[in-house]
Each structure stands twice: as structure tokens, then as C-alpha cells.
Amino acid sequence: MSLRSAPDSFDILLVEDNPGDARLAQEALKEGRMSSRLKVVVDGVEAMTYLRREGPFADAPVPNLVLLDLNLPRKDGRQVLAEMKADPNLRRIPVVVLTTSQAEQDILRTYDLHANCYITKPVDLDRFISVVRSIEEYWCSVVTLPPR
């Protein structure tokens, strides 16, 4: 089994409660050069249900990458990250924290919880789209990922 995922099967889970940011990410990925599939969930509880492939997500693909906002309803991104990295079935999925927070405590805490990357969401629309595309390109075509 090859460790590298084929570009046509690259699945991204976006955990984002802001519909505008989710829509921008979808547009950025749709117009990008890669052929990623994006699934969006709106809170931390739904994210863990998806990742554990429970209930309505029983047939969901295991994502190659999780884009995780920190400030989420029901269960925040820090809790999601902690649960993912504590679960042997989920801990190898790379997590890119993509959030508005620039707080040093958030940056330190997420790296302590083994986030793979921390990115502060740009306010500028074009810059936001560029950042999402660069995340996709890096994780989809540069990095060698573990098998799903």
C-alpha cells in the first residue's frame, strides 16, 4: 500500500461554523488546481461524529486533512483537537487550525495538542482564498500522508 494519497481521492473536512468562511473555502477549493473533496460540518460535536463515522456519517470517507476553527459551538476546536490526537484511529490525520484568533495562548495550546499547523484567517477575501488554496496544494501534493 502506498503512503501517498492519490490527488483524485483527497478528502478535506472543514469544521467551520461561519457560513461565509465555509463558502469561501468551498469556492477556493473548487477553483483550485487540485481535485479535493470538501465536507463541511458546523460544530465540534458534528466533527467528532463525522470523524468517528457514526450516525449519518457512517459511510463518510476518512479525511486526509482537517481544517479546524477553534471557536465552535457545542464543542470547541481545542476539544476536538484533543479528542482527535488522543484517539489512535484519528491521531494521524493532519489538523490545520484555521481561525481568527491571534492569541498566543491559543497558538501554544493547539501546538501542545499536536496541531500540525496554525493559520490565522486573513481578513482580506483574496488573501483568504489564496491561503486555502496553498493549504490544499501543500497537503495534497507536497506532503506524504499516512494511509487512511
Write up this protein.
With 148 residues, the chain is of the alpha/beta class. The chain has a single domain, classed as 3-Layer(aba) Sandwich (Rossmann fold), CATH 3.40.50. Helices cover 39% and strands 16% of the residues. Helix 1 links the parallel strand 1 and strand 2. The longest helix has 18 residues, at 125-142.
Short description:
The chain is an alpha/beta fold and 148 residues long. 39% of the residues lie in helices and 16% in strands. A five-stranded parallel sheet has the order 2-1-3-4-5, with helices on both faces.
Distance between the termini: 11 Å
Average pLDDT, rounded to a whole number, is 89
Radius of gyration: 14 Å
Helix coverage percent = 25-40%
* CATH topology descriptor: Rossmann fold
Strands, count: 5
Low-confidence stretches: 1-7
In DSSP terms, counting alpha (H) and pi (I) runs of 4 or more, how many helices? 5
CATH architecture: 3-Layer(aba) Sandwich
Give the count of structural domains: 1
Looking at the structure, what is the overall shape?
globular
Biggest sheet record: 5 strands, parallel
How are the strands ordered across the major sheet?
2-1-3-4-5
